[in-house]
Design the sequence.
């Protein structure tokens, strides 16, 4: 297996794991007050107020990114098995899907960032983004890397011609 394809598979797998962990954990936002602290994620618990629209948008785009990232990684795995892949097309399609997954992750975290950033602040409470949020950003970078490496694998793949006959 060539190095670009191997690294693309590694980066895509890390991006998929990162977005899944970010989606399933509850540490997107942390608030620390004088007597207590709290954290929240994308999946509010209990009977609270209705979930804000930006949370739904972040959930939707993050889930779509995870699904498309899974397709990208699956196509890369299939491209490593010559009998199951179309000659030369697996890395190209995987590259496109990895870039789409990165785009969806970026939309999700930018929407979340912009809405959380504009919320009113209380002088008694210190708020900040937490590790699940940053893991979402990291997954976008991994998907971008997987897309670029997969595109490199596609461009460096041998083309059928007279030399191969």
Sequence:
């Amino acid at each position: 297996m060539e190095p670009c394809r191997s690294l693309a598979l590694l980066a895509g797998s890390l991006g998929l794991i990162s977005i899944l962990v970010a989606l399933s954990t509850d540490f997107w936002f942390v608030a620390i007050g004088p007597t207590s602290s709290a954290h929240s994620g994308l999946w509010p618990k209990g009977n609270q107020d209705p979930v804000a629209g930006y949370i739904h948008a972040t959930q939707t785009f993050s889930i779509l990114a995870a699904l498309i990232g899974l397709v990208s990684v699956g196509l890369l795995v299939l491209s490593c098995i010559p009998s199951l892949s179309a000659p030369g097309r697996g890395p190209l399609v995987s590259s496109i899907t990895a870039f789409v997954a990165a785009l969806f992750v970026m939309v999700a975290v930018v929407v979340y960032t912009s809405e959380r950033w504009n919320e009113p602040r209380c002088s008694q409470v210190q708020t900040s983004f937490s590790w699940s949020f940053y893991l979402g950003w990291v997954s976008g970078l991994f998907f971008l890397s997987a897309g670029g490496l997969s595109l490199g694998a596609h461009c460096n793949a041998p083309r059928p011609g007279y030399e191969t006959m």
The mean pLDDT is 85. The longest strand covers residues 29-32.
